[in-house]
Amino acid sequence: MTWSEMQPLLEQACTETLVMVGWSTLIAVVGGLPLGILLVLTDKGGLLQNTVVNKVIGQIVNIGRSLPFIILMVALMNFTRWVTGTTIGSEAAIVPLAIGGIPFFARLVETAVREVDDGLVEAVQAMGGNTWTIVRKVLVPEALPSLIASTTTTVIALIGYSAMAGTVGGGGLGDLAVRYGYQRFETGLMWITVAILAVVISLIQFAGDFAARSLHRRGARSGPGPKLRLLKGEEPAPAEVGKVA
Amino acid sequence: MITTSGLTKVYRSRGREVTALDGVDLHVREGEVYGVIGQSGAGKSSLIRCVNLLERPTSGTVTVAGQDLTALAGRGPRAGRELRQARSRIGMVFQHFNLLSSRTVQDNVELPLEILGKSGKERSRKALELLDLVGLADKAKAYPAQLSGGQKQRVGIARALAGDPKVLLSDEATSALDPETTRSILQLLRDLNRQLGLTVLLITHEMDVVKSICDSAALMENGRIVESGTVTDLLATPGSELAAALFPVGGEASGDDRTVVDVTFQGESATQPVISQLSRTYNIDISILGAAIDTVGGLQVGRMRIELPGRYEDNVVPIGFLREQGLQIDVVDHDEPALVKEGAK
Protein backbone atom coordinates (compact mmCIF):
# COMPACT_ATOMS: atom_id res chain seq x y z
CA MET A 1 0.00 0.00 0.00
CA THR A 2 1.45 3.31 -0.98
CA TRP A 3 1.23 6.54 0.97
CA SER A 4 -1.07 8.08 -1.63
CA GLU A 5 -3.44 5.18 -1.04
CA MET A 6 -3.19 5.44 2.71
CA GLN A 7 -3.51 9.22 3.03
CA PRO A 8 -7.23 9.59 2.21
CA LEU A 9 -8.05 6.61 4.43
CA LEU A 10 -6.13 8.13 7.31
CA GLU A 11 -7.65 11.53 6.82
CA GLN A 12 -11.13 10.15 6.84
CA ALA A 13 -10.42 7.97 9.86
CA CYS A 14 -8.98 10.90 11.78
CA THR A 15 -12.01 13.04 11.04
CA GLU A 16 -14.33 10.27 12.13
CA THR A 17 -12.48 9.75 15.39
CA LEU A 18 -12.47 13.47 16.00
CA VAL A 19 -16.20 13.70 15.41
CA MET A 20 -17.01 10.72 17.61
CA VAL A 21 -14.73 11.70 20.47
CA GLY A 22 -15.48 15.41 20.23
CA TRP A 23 -19.22 15.12 20.41
CA SER A 24 -19.28 12.33 22.96
CA THR A 25 -16.88 14.25 25.22
CA LEU A 26 -19.07 17.31 24.99
CA ILE A 27 -22.16 15.32 25.90
CA ALA A 28 -20.33 13.41 28.62
CA VAL A 29 -19.17 16.68 30.21
CA VAL A 30 -22.55 18.38 29.94
CA GLY A 31 -24.30 15.33 31.38
CA GLY A 32 -21.66 14.14 33.81
CA LEU A 33 -20.92 17.47 35.48
CA PRO A 34 -24.38 17.99 36.99
CA LEU A 35 -24.64 14.30 37.88
CA GLY A 36 -21.28 14.35 39.66
CA ILE A 37 -22.18 17.52 41.55
CA LEU A 38 -25.57 16.06 42.47
CA LEU A 39 -23.82 12.97 43.82
CA VAL A 40 -21.89 15.19 46.23
CA LEU A 41 -24.79 17.48 47.14
CA THR A 42 -27.28 14.69 47.82
CA ASP A 43 -24.82 12.63 49.82
CA LYS A 44 -25.12 12.29 53.59
CA GLY A 45 -24.29 15.65 55.14
CA GLY A 46 -24.51 17.34 51.74
CA LEU A 47 -26.32 20.57 51.02
CA LEU A 48 -29.22 18.79 49.33
CA GLN A 49 -29.01 15.58 51.33
CA ASN A 50 -31.36 13.06 49.76
CA THR A 51 -30.60 9.41 50.23
CA VAL A 52 -33.02 8.17 47.58
CA VAL A 53 -31.75 10.44 44.80
CA ASN A 54 -28.16 9.74 45.82
CA LYS A 55 -28.64 5.98 45.77
CA VAL A 56 -30.44 6.05 42.43
CA ILE A 57 -27.84 8.22 40.69
CA GLY A 58 -25.02 6.28 42.33
CA GLN A 59 -26.47 2.99 41.12
CA ILE A 60 -26.97 4.24 37.56
CA VAL A 61 -23.43 5.58 37.48
CA ASN A 62 -22.06 2.32 38.85
CA ILE A 63 -23.83 0.22 36.26
CA GLY A 64 -22.74 2.55 33.48
CA ARG A 65 -19.17 2.43 34.71
CA SER A 66 -18.90 -1.30 35.22
CA LEU A 67 -20.57 -2.49 32.04
CA PRO A 68 -17.98 -3.36 29.38
CA PHE A 69 -18.31 -0.75 26.68
CA ILE A 70 -18.84 -3.24 23.88
CA ILE A 71 -21.83 -4.68 25.71
CA LEU A 72 -23.21 -1.23 26.44
CA MET A 73 -22.94 -0.47 22.77
CA VAL A 74 -24.86 -3.54 21.72
CA ALA A 75 -27.43 -3.10 24.45
CA LEU A 76 -28.07 0.47 23.36
CA MET A 77 -28.64 -0.37 19.70
CA ASN A 78 -32.38 0.25 19.76
CA PHE A 79 -31.92 3.50 21.57
CA THR A 80 -29.24 4.55 19.11
CA ARG A 81 -31.52 3.80 16.18
CA TRP A 82 -34.27 5.81 17.81
CA VAL A 83 -31.96 8.81 18.28
CA THR A 84 -29.97 8.82 15.05
CA GLY A 85 -32.06 6.64 12.77
CA THR A 86 -29.21 4.19 12.27
CA THR A 87 -26.82 1.99 14.19
CA ILE A 88 -23.96 2.27 11.75
CA GLY A 89 -21.47 5.07 11.24
CA SER A 90 -19.72 7.68 13.35
CA GLU A 91 -22.88 9.53 14.28
CA ALA A 92 -24.49 6.38 15.58
CA ALA A 93 -21.33 5.62 17.57
CA ILE A 94 -21.60 8.96 19.36
CA VAL A 95 -24.70 7.75 21.25
CA PRO A 96 -23.14 4.80 23.12
CA LEU A 97 -19.90 6.71 23.53
CA ALA A 98 -21.67 9.64 25.16
CA ILE A 99 -23.76 7.38 27.34
CA GLY A 100 -20.67 5.46 28.39
CA GLY A 101 -18.82 8.73 29.01
CA ILE A 102 -21.43 10.37 31.24
CA PRO A 103 -21.11 8.04 34.26
CA PHE A 104 -17.36 7.86 33.73
CA PHE A 105 -17.03 11.62 33.91
CA ALA A 106 -19.64 11.91 36.69
CA ARG A 107 -17.54 9.76 39.05
CA LEU A 108 -14.47 11.85 38.31
CA VAL A 109 -16.44 15.05 38.92
CA GLU A 110 -17.70 13.65 42.20
CA THR A 111 -14.16 13.00 43.38
CA ALA A 112 -12.97 16.41 42.23
CA VAL A 113 -15.82 18.30 43.91
CA ARG A 114 -15.45 16.35 47.15
CA GLU A 115 -11.91 17.68 47.38
CA VAL A 116 -13.17 21.25 47.76
CA ASP A 117 -12.67 22.42 51.34
CA ASP A 118 -15.90 22.37 53.35
CA GLY A 119 -14.79 25.60 54.98
CA LEU A 120 -15.28 27.46 51.70
CA VAL A 121 -18.83 26.17 51.45
CA GLU A 122 -19.42 27.21 55.03
CA ALA A 123 -17.99 30.67 54.37
CA VAL A 124 -20.35 31.27 51.47
CA GLN A 125 -23.27 29.92 53.48
CA ALA A 126 -22.37 32.39 56.21
CA MET A 127 -22.51 35.18 53.61
CA GLY A 128 -26.05 34.20 52.79
CA GLY A 129 -25.33 32.28 49.60
CA ASN A 130 -27.77 29.60 48.46
CA THR A 131 -26.90 26.18 47.09
CA TRP A 132 -26.82 27.36 43.48
CA THR A 133 -24.41 30.16 44.41
CA ILE A 134 -22.21 27.64 46.19
CA VAL A 135 -22.14 25.37 43.14
CA ARG A 136 -21.41 28.21 40.74
CA LYS A 137 -18.99 30.28 42.78
CA VAL A 138 -17.29 27.71 44.98
CA LEU A 139 -17.56 24.09 43.94
CA VAL A 140 -16.99 24.43 40.19
CA PRO A 141 -14.32 27.19 40.18
CA GLU A 142 -12.39 25.67 43.06
CA ALA A 143 -12.48 22.19 41.54
CA LEU A 144 -11.68 23.48 38.05
CA PRO A 145 -8.08 22.20 37.82
CA SER A 146 -9.26 18.71 38.83
CA LEU A 147 -12.24 18.97 36.49
CA ILE A 148 -9.92 19.73 33.59
CA ALA A 149 -7.75 16.76 34.50
CA SER A 150 -10.91 14.64 34.64
CA THR A 151 -11.91 15.84 31.19
CA THR A 152 -8.51 14.81 29.85
CA THR A 153 -8.93 11.35 31.32
CA THR A 154 -12.42 11.13 29.83
CA VAL A 155 -11.25 12.16 26.34
CA ILE A 156 -8.55 9.51 26.40
CA ALA A 157 -10.95 6.85 27.63
CA LEU A 158 -13.38 7.81 24.88
CA ILE A 159 -10.66 7.49 22.23
CA GLY A 160 -10.18 3.97 23.53
CA TYR A 161 -13.92 3.27 23.40
CA SER A 162 -14.16 4.81 19.94
CA ALA A 163 -11.80 2.14 18.58
CA MET A 164 -14.29 -0.44 19.80
CA ALA A 165 -17.16 1.49 18.31
CA GLY A 166 -15.21 1.52 15.06
CA THR A 167 -15.21 -2.23 14.75
CA VAL A 168 -19.00 -2.34 14.61
CA GLY A 169 -19.24 0.27 11.89
CA GLY A 170 -18.37 3.49 13.62
CA GLY A 171 -15.33 4.17 11.51
CA GLY A 172 -12.34 6.05 12.85
CA LEU A 173 -8.74 5.16 13.50
CA GLY A 174 -9.42 2.01 15.48
CA ASP A 175 -11.61 0.67 12.73
CA LEU A 176 -8.92 1.45 10.16
CA ALA A 177 -6.27 -0.36 12.14
CA VAL A 178 -8.45 -3.43 12.54
CA ARG A 179 -9.74 -3.59 8.96
CA TYR A 180 -6.49 -2.91 7.16
CA GLY A 181 -3.85 -3.77 9.71
CA TYR A 182 -5.38 -6.93 11.15
CA GLN A 183 -7.67 -8.28 8.49
CA ARG A 184 -5.60 -7.36 5.41
CA PHE A 185 -2.15 -7.65 6.94
CA GLU A 186 -1.27 -4.03 6.08
CA THR A 187 1.16 -3.78 8.94
CA GLY A 188 2.50 -0.42 7.74
CA LEU A 189 -0.88 1.25 7.93
CA MET A 190 -1.52 -0.27 11.31
CA TRP A 191 1.67 1.11 12.74
CA ILE A 192 0.90 4.54 11.33
CA THR A 193 -2.50 4.48 13.07
CA VAL A 194 -0.88 3.37 16.28
CA ALA A 195 1.61 6.20 15.98
CA ILE A 196 -1.10 8.75 15.29
CA LEU A 197 -3.11 7.55 18.29
CA ALA A 198 -0.06 7.68 20.52
CA VAL A 199 0.78 11.21 19.42
CA VAL A 200 -2.82 12.39 19.76
CA ILE A 201 -3.16 10.92 23.24
CA SER A 202 0.14 12.42 24.36
CA LEU A 203 -0.85 15.81 23.03
CA ILE A 204 -4.20 15.70 24.79
CA GLN A 205 -2.60 14.61 28.04
CA PHE A 206 -0.01 17.33 27.77
CA ALA A 207 -2.53 20.05 26.96
CA GLY A 208 -4.81 18.90 29.77
CA ASP A 209 -2.01 18.77 32.31
CA PHE A 210 -0.76 22.15 31.25
CA ALA A 211 -4.19 23.75 31.57
CA ALA A 212 -4.86 22.12 34.94
CA ARG A 213 -1.47 23.07 36.29
CA SER A 214 -1.57 26.65 35.15
CA LEU A 215 -4.94 27.07 36.83
CA HIS A 216 -3.77 25.30 39.93
CA ARG A 217 -0.65 27.40 40.17
CA ARG A 218 -2.67 30.53 39.85
CA GLY A 219 -1.56 32.68 42.66
CA ALA A 220 1.06 30.31 43.91
CA ARG A 221 4.42 31.98 43.81
CA SER A 222 5.39 31.92 40.18
CA GLY A 223 8.39 33.58 38.65
CA PRO A 224 12.01 32.60 39.06
CA GLY A 225 12.77 29.01 39.91
CA PRO A 226 14.97 27.96 42.82
CA LYS A 227 18.24 28.67 41.02
CA LEU A 228 17.41 32.21 40.07
CA ARG A 229 16.07 32.86 43.50
CA LEU A 230 19.35 31.84 45.03
CA LEU A 231 21.15 34.34 42.86
CA LYS A 232 18.82 37.07 43.99
CA GLY A 233 19.20 36.11 47.61
CA GLU A 234 16.51 34.84 49.92
CA GLU A 235 13.10 36.27 49.43
CA PRO A 236 12.09 38.46 52.34
CA ALA A 237 9.41 36.94 54.52
CA PRO A 238 6.01 38.34 53.67
CA ALA A 239 5.62 41.27 56.00
CA GLU A 240 2.53 42.36 57.77
CA VAL A 241 1.60 45.45 55.89
CA GLY A 242 -0.63 48.23 56.93
CA LYS A 243 -2.84 48.73 59.88
CA VAL A 244 -6.09 50.54 60.30
CA ALA A 245 -5.22 54.19 60.34
CA MET B 1 -27.25 42.42 70.21
CA ILE B 2 -26.81 38.66 70.31
CA THR B 3 -28.88 36.66 72.72
CA THR B 4 -29.13 32.94 72.96
CA SER B 5 -31.41 31.29 75.43
CA GLY B 6 -31.50 27.66 76.37
CA LEU B 7 -29.40 26.83 73.33
CA THR B 8 -28.91 23.10 73.04
CA LYS B 9 -27.22 21.12 70.32
CA VAL B 10 -27.18 17.36 70.31
CA TYR B 11 -25.36 15.43 67.61
CA ARG B 12 -26.67 12.00 66.85
CA SER B 13 -24.62 9.48 65.01
CA ARG B 14 -25.04 5.72 64.93
CA GLY B 15 -27.42 5.81 67.86
CA ARG B 16 -24.96 7.71 70.02
CA GLU B 17 -25.74 11.14 71.28
CA VAL B 18 -23.23 13.85 71.95
CA THR B 19 -24.40 17.00 73.68
CA ALA B 20 -22.26 19.83 72.33
CA LEU B 21 -24.32 22.63 73.81
CA ASP B 22 -26.28 22.18 76.97
CA GLY B 23 -28.60 25.10 77.60
CA VAL B 24 -26.38 28.04 76.74
CA ASP B 25 -27.62 31.49 77.67
CA LEU B 26 -25.41 34.15 76.17
CA HIS B 27 -25.96 37.85 76.06
CA VAL B 28 -23.70 40.05 73.98
CA ARG B 29 -24.36 43.76 74.28
CA GLU B 30 -24.20 46.10 71.34
CA GLY B 31 -20.74 47.43 70.54
CA GLU B 32 -18.77 45.12 72.79
CA VAL B 33 -16.15 42.50 72.08
CA TYR B 34 -17.27 39.28 73.72
CA GLY B 35 -14.93 36.35 74.03
CA VAL B 36 -15.97 32.78 74.64
CA ILE B 37 -13.04 30.74 75.83
CA GLY B 38 -12.75 27.04 76.44
CA GLN B 39 -10.79 23.98 75.55
CA SER B 40 -11.39 22.11 72.33
CA GLY B 41 -14.50 20.05 72.64
CA ALA B 42 -16.09 22.49 75.06
CA GLY B 43 -18.70 23.46 72.48
CA LYS B 44 -17.37 26.86 71.38
CA SER B 45 -17.48 26.04 67.70
CA SER B 46 -20.99 24.68 67.91
CA LEU B 47 -22.01 27.81 69.78
CA ILE B 48 -20.70 30.27 67.20
CA ARG B 49 -22.11 28.19 64.34
CA CYS B 50 -25.48 28.19 66.01
CA VAL B 51 -25.48 31.99 66.15
CA ASN B 52 -25.84 32.28 62.37
CA LEU B 53 -27.50 28.90 62.18
CA LEU B 54 -24.80 27.19 60.17
CA GLU B 55 -25.66 24.57 62.77
CA ARG B 56 -29.31 24.12 63.64
CA PRO B 57 -29.73 24.16 67.39
CA THR B 58 -31.66 21.19 68.74
CA SER B 59 -33.59 23.58 70.96
CA GLY B 60 -33.41 27.13 72.25
CA THR B 61 -33.47 30.44 70.45
CA VAL B 62 -30.95 32.78 68.88
CA THR B 63 -31.72 36.45 68.50
CA VAL B 64 -29.38 38.74 66.58
CA ALA B 65 -30.13 42.45 66.34
CA GLY B 66 -33.65 41.87 67.54
CA GLN B 67 -34.41 39.22 64.96
CA ASP B 68 -35.22 35.69 66.07
CA LEU B 69 -33.12 33.64 63.68
CA THR B 70 -34.33 30.30 64.95
CA ALA B 71 -37.81 31.30 63.83
CA LEU B 72 -36.51 31.89 60.29
CA ALA B 73 -34.83 28.54 60.05
CA GLY B 74 -37.71 26.49 58.74
CA ARG B 75 -37.76 22.73 58.98
CA GLY B 76 -35.46 21.36 56.33
CA PRO B 77 -31.69 21.54 56.36
CA ARG B 78 -31.69 24.23 53.68
CA ALA B 79 -31.63 27.87 54.60
CA GLY B 80 -34.63 29.83 53.36
CA ARG B 81 -34.39 33.26 51.81
CA GLU B 82 -35.07 35.13 55.04
CA LEU B 83 -32.39 33.28 56.94
CA ARG B 84 -29.92 33.87 54.12
CA GLN B 85 -30.69 37.58 54.20
CA ALA B 86 -30.18 37.64 57.94
CA ARG B 87 -26.86 35.83 57.53
CA SER B 88 -25.67 38.39 55.02
CA ARG B 89 -25.91 40.96 57.81
CA ILE B 90 -23.66 38.91 60.09
CA GLY B 91 -19.99 38.82 59.17
CA MET B 92 -17.89 35.79 59.95
CA VAL B 93 -14.16 35.14 59.96
CA PHE B 94 -12.60 31.71 60.18
CA GLN B 95 -9.54 30.07 61.64
CA HIS B 96 -8.37 28.87 58.24
CA PHE B 97 -9.49 32.04 56.44
CA ASN B 98 -11.59 30.09 53.90
CA LEU B 99 -10.68 32.30 50.96
CA LEU B 100 -11.41 31.06 47.45
CA SER B 101 -8.07 30.19 45.85
CA SER B 102 -9.52 30.69 42.37
CA ARG B 103 -10.30 34.36 43.01
CA THR B 104 -8.11 37.37 43.54
CA VAL B 105 -8.15 39.18 46.85
CA GLN B 106 -10.50 41.81 45.46
CA ASP B 107 -12.84 39.20 43.97
CA ASN B 108 -12.91 37.39 47.30
CA VAL B 109 -14.04 40.56 49.03
CA GLU B 110 -16.60 41.16 46.29
CA LEU B 111 -18.17 37.73 46.70
CA PRO B 112 -20.65 38.66 49.44
CA LEU B 113 -21.60 41.72 47.38
CA GLU B 114 -22.25 39.50 44.37
CA ILE B 115 -24.55 37.44 46.56
CA LEU B 116 -26.30 40.64 47.61
CA GLY B 117 -26.76 41.49 43.93
CA LYS B 118 -24.72 44.71 43.86
CA SER B 119 -23.56 46.15 40.56
CA GLY B 120 -19.99 45.64 39.35
CA LYS B 121 -18.98 49.24 39.93
CA GLU B 122 -20.41 49.32 43.43
CA ARG B 123 -18.74 46.02 44.27
CA SER B 124 -15.27 47.10 43.26
CA ARG B 125 -15.61 50.47 44.98
CA LYS B 126 -16.66 48.81 48.23
CA ALA B 127 -14.04 46.07 47.98
CA LEU B 128 -11.21 48.53 47.45
CA GLU B 129 -12.46 50.68 50.30
CA LEU B 130 -12.47 47.68 52.63
CA LEU B 131 -9.05 46.49 51.49
CA ASP B 132 -7.79 49.94 52.27
CA LEU B 133 -9.38 49.74 55.71
CA VAL B 134 -7.56 46.49 56.52
CA GLY B 135 -4.32 47.79 55.04
CA LEU B 136 -4.16 45.63 51.94
CA ALA B 137 -5.00 48.12 49.19
CA ASP B 138 -1.91 47.09 47.23
CA LYS B 139 -2.83 43.40 47.21
CA ALA B 140 -6.17 43.68 45.42
CA LYS B 141 -4.97 41.79 42.36
CA ALA B 142 -2.99 39.14 44.25
CA TYR B 143 -4.24 35.61 44.81
CA PRO B 144 -4.66 34.26 48.35
CA ALA B 145 -1.77 31.81 47.84
CA GLN B 146 0.57 34.79 47.49
CA LEU B 147 -0.31 36.20 50.91
CA SER B 148 0.96 35.47 54.39
CA GLY B 149 -1.38 34.12 57.05
CA GLY B 150 -1.96 37.52 58.59
CA GLN B 151 -2.72 39.07 55.23
CA LYS B 152 -5.15 36.26 54.43
CA GLN B 153 -6.97 36.91 57.65
CA ARG B 154 -7.15 40.62 56.81
CA VAL B 155 -8.79 39.67 53.54
CA GLY B 156 -11.12 37.41 55.50
CA ILE B 157 -12.04 40.34 57.73
CA ALA B 158 -12.55 42.69 54.75
CA ARG B 159 -14.81 40.07 53.18
CA ALA B 160 -16.77 39.67 56.39
CA LEU B 161 -17.37 43.41 56.46
CA ALA B 162 -18.56 43.68 52.87
CA GLY B 163 -22.23 43.40 53.72
CA ASP B 164 -21.97 46.21 56.32
CA PRO B 165 -22.72 43.86 59.19
CA LYS B 166 -23.48 45.05 62.69
CA VAL B 167 -22.18 41.80 64.11
CA LEU B 168 -18.94 39.98 63.45
CA LEU B 169 -18.44 36.36 64.45
CA SER B 170 -14.86 35.27 64.79
CA ASP B 171 -14.18 31.55 64.86
CA GLU B 172 -10.66 31.17 66.27
CA ALA B 173 -9.54 33.86 63.84
CA THR B 174 -6.03 34.06 65.24
CA SER B 175 -5.41 30.46 66.19
CA ALA B 176 -3.50 29.68 63.01
CA LEU B 177 -1.28 32.75 63.30
CA ASP B 178 1.99 33.46 65.05
CA PRO B 179 1.94 35.66 68.18
CA GLU B 180 2.96 38.88 66.47
CA THR B 181 0.46 38.51 63.64
CA THR B 182 -2.16 37.54 66.21
CA ARG B 183 -1.54 40.83 67.95
CA SER B 184 -1.95 42.85 64.77
CA ILE B 185 -5.14 41.04 63.80
CA LEU B 186 -6.58 41.55 67.28
CA GLN B 187 -5.66 45.20 67.08
CA LEU B 188 -7.49 45.41 63.77
CA LEU B 189 -10.58 43.79 65.27
CA ARG B 190 -10.41 46.18 68.19
CA ASP B 191 -10.11 49.18 65.86
CA LEU B 192 -13.03 48.01 63.75
CA ASN B 193 -15.06 47.48 66.88
CA ARG B 194 -14.39 51.08 67.92
CA GLN B 195 -14.58 52.76 64.51
CA LEU B 196 -17.61 50.99 63.13
CA GLY B 197 -19.36 50.21 66.38
CA LEU B 198 -19.14 46.58 65.38
CA THR B 199 -20.27 44.00 67.91
CA VAL B 200 -17.79 41.14 67.95
CA LEU B 201 -18.41 37.65 69.27
CA LEU B 202 -15.26 35.61 69.19
CA ILE B 203 -14.36 32.14 70.31
CA THR B 204 -10.85 31.21 71.19
CA HIS B 205 -8.76 28.89 73.28
CA GLU B 206 -6.12 31.53 73.88
CA MET B 207 -6.42 33.49 77.08
CA ASP B 208 -4.30 36.27 75.55
CA VAL B 209 -7.03 37.01 73.02
CA VAL B 210 -9.56 37.61 75.76
CA LYS B 211 -7.03 39.63 77.72
CA SER B 212 -6.12 41.96 74.91
CA ILE B 213 -9.44 42.83 73.29
CA CYS B 214 -12.47 41.51 75.12
CA ASP B 215 -14.86 43.67 77.11
CA SER B 216 -16.70 40.61 78.31
CA ALA B 217 -15.88 36.96 78.46
CA ALA B 218 -17.46 33.61 79.11
CA LEU B 219 -15.82 30.33 80.05
CA MET B 220 -17.23 27.21 78.45
CA GLU B 221 -16.88 23.69 79.75
CA ASN B 222 -18.72 20.62 78.52
CA GLY B 223 -21.24 22.59 76.53
CA ARG B 224 -22.12 24.91 79.37
CA ILE B 225 -21.14 28.43 80.21
CA VAL B 226 -19.68 28.18 83.68
CA GLU B 227 -18.69 31.81 84.14
CA SER B 228 -19.48 34.99 82.29
CA GLY B 229 -19.51 38.72 82.68
CA THR B 230 -17.54 41.82 81.87
CA VAL B 231 -13.82 41.37 82.34
CA THR B 232 -13.86 43.98 85.11
CA ASP B 233 -16.56 42.12 87.01
CA LEU B 234 -14.82 38.81 86.54
CA LEU B 235 -11.58 40.16 87.96
CA ALA B 236 -13.52 41.41 90.97
CA THR B 237 -15.13 38.03 91.55
CA PRO B 238 -13.32 36.07 94.26
CA GLY B 239 -12.37 32.61 93.10
CA SER B 240 -13.20 33.32 89.48
CA GLU B 241 -11.48 30.72 87.34
CA LEU B 242 -11.46 33.06 84.38
CA ALA B 243 -9.89 35.86 86.36
CA ALA B 244 -7.20 33.53 87.67
CA ALA B 245 -6.50 32.26 84.18
CA LEU B 246 -6.53 35.76 82.70
CA PHE B 247 -4.08 36.92 85.22
CA PRO B 248 -2.02 34.18 86.75
CA VAL B 249 0.54 34.89 89.44
CA GLY B 250 2.93 32.22 90.57
CA GLY B 251 4.82 31.50 93.74
CA GLU B 252 4.66 28.79 96.38
CA ALA B 253 4.51 29.23 100.15
CA SER B 254 7.97 28.94 101.71
CA GLY B 255 6.75 26.99 104.74
CA ASP B 256 3.74 25.46 106.48
CA ASP B 257 3.18 28.28 108.92
CA ARG B 258 2.72 30.89 106.21
CA THR B 259 -0.30 32.45 104.66
CA VAL B 260 -0.30 33.15 100.96
CA VAL B 261 -2.64 35.85 99.73
CA ASP B 262 -3.44 37.03 96.21
CA VAL B 263 -4.12 40.72 96.08
CA THR B 264 -5.80 42.23 93.04
CA PHE B 265 -5.66 45.97 92.44
CA GLN B 266 -7.97 47.78 90.09
CA GLY B 267 -8.34 51.44 89.26
CA GLU B 268 -8.18 53.66 92.40
CA SER B 269 -6.77 51.10 94.77
CA ALA B 270 -3.81 50.53 92.51
CA THR B 271 -2.36 53.89 93.55
CA GLN B 272 -2.48 53.27 97.31
CA PRO B 273 0.72 52.17 99.10
CA VAL B 274 -1.15 49.36 100.86
CA ILE B 275 1.69 46.92 101.31
CA SER B 276 3.92 49.31 103.20
CA GLN B 277 0.93 50.49 105.24
CA LEU B 278 0.17 46.89 106.12
CA SER B 279 3.75 46.26 107.12
CA ARG B 280 3.93 49.38 109.27
CA THR B 281 0.55 49.05 110.93
CA TYR B 282 0.88 45.42 111.97
CA ASN B 283 4.64 45.28 112.16
CA ILE B 284 4.89 42.21 109.96
CA ASP B 285 7.33 41.19 107.27
CA ILE B 286 5.76 40.65 103.93
CA SER B 287 7.45 38.79 101.13
CA ILE B 288 6.28 39.17 97.59
CA LEU B 289 6.14 35.82 95.79
CA GLY B 290 4.99 37.09 92.44
CA ALA B 291 3.47 40.19 90.95
CA ALA B 292 2.32 41.52 87.63
CA ILE B 293 0.63 44.54 86.22
CA ASP B 294 -1.23 44.17 83.00
CA THR B 295 -3.89 45.70 80.86
CA VAL B 296 -6.96 43.53 80.73
CA GLY B 297 -9.81 44.70 78.57
CA GLY B 298 -8.23 48.16 78.41
CA LEU B 299 -8.05 48.33 82.18
CA GLN B 300 -4.93 48.55 84.35
CA VAL B 301 -4.96 45.65 86.74
CA GLY B 302 -2.32 44.53 89.16
CA ARG B 303 -2.08 41.25 90.91
CA MET B 304 0.35 40.31 93.62
CA ARG B 305 0.94 37.14 95.55
CA ILE B 306 2.28 37.92 99.01
CA GLU B 307 3.26 35.79 101.93
CA LEU B 308 2.51 36.68 105.53
CA PRO B 309 4.17 34.97 108.46
CA GLY B 310 1.93 32.74 110.53
CA ARG B 311 -1.11 30.64 109.70
CA TYR B 312 -4.38 32.02 108.37
CA GLU B 313 -5.81 32.25 111.88
CA ASP B 314 -2.98 34.59 112.88
CA ASN B 315 -3.53 36.84 109.87
CA VAL B 316 -7.25 37.46 110.01
CA VAL B 317 -6.75 41.05 111.06
CA PRO B 318 -4.18 42.07 108.40
CA ILE B 319 -6.26 40.39 105.73
CA GLY B 320 -9.28 42.27 106.96
CA PHE B 321 -7.24 45.46 106.67
CA LEU B 322 -6.43 44.69 103.04
CA ARG B 323 -10.09 44.03 102.28
CA GLU B 324 -11.00 47.35 103.86
CA GLN B 325 -8.69 49.10 101.42
CA GLY B 326 -10.98 47.99 98.62
CA LEU B 327 -8.66 45.31 97.37
CA GLN B 328 -9.76 41.95 96.23
CA ILE B 329 -8.21 39.28 98.39
CA ASP B 330 -8.00 35.58 97.67
CA VAL B 331 -6.36 33.45 100.31
CA VAL B 332 -4.52 30.66 98.57
CA ASP B 333 -4.87 27.06 99.81
CA HIS B 334 -7.17 27.99 102.58
CA ASP B 335 -10.57 26.41 103.04
CA GLU B 336 -12.63 29.32 101.98
CA PRO B 337 -15.76 28.30 100.10
CA ALA B 338 -14.56 29.65 96.75
CA LEU B 339 -11.39 27.67 96.93
CA VAL B 340 -12.86 24.35 98.01
CA LYS B 341 -13.77 23.93 94.37
CA GLU B 342 -10.19 24.31 93.32
CA GLY B 343 -8.96 21.89 95.93
CA ALA B 344 -11.41 19.29 94.68
CA LYS B 345 -9.91 19.23 91.20
UniProtKB/TrEMBL annotation, chain A:
Gene3D superfamilies: MetI-like. The keyword Cell membrane applies. PROSITE patterns: ABC_TM1 (PS50928). It is a multi-pass membrane protein. Its main location: membrane. It holds the Pfam family BPD_transp_1. Keywords: Cell membrane, Membrane, Transmembrane, Transmembrane helix, Transport. It is found in: Cell membrane. Residues 14-212 form the ABC transmembrane type-1 domain. The chain crosses the membrane at residues 20-41, 62-80, 146-168, 188-212. It comes from the Bacteria. Belongs to the binding-protein-dependent transport system permease family. This is D-methionine transport system permease protein. It comes from Streptomyces thermodiastaticus.
Automatic annotation (TrEMBL), chain B:
Residues 2-247 form the ABC transporter domain. GO terms for molecular function: ATP binding; nucleotidyltransferase activity. Transmembrane segments: none annotated. It comes from the Bacteria. Keywords: Amino-acid transport, ATP-binding, Cell membrane, Membrane, Nucleotide-binding, Nucleotidyltransferase, Transferase, Translocase, Transport. Gene3D superfamilies: 3.30.70.260, P-loop containing nucleotide triphosphate hydrolases. PROSITE patterns: ABC_TRANSPORTER_1, ABC_TRANSPORTER_2. Pfam families: ABC_tran (PF00005), NIL (PF09383). SUPFAM superfamilies: ACT-like, P-loop containing nucleoside triphosphate hydrolases. This is D-methionine transport system ATP-binding protein. It comes from Streptomyces thermodiastaticus.
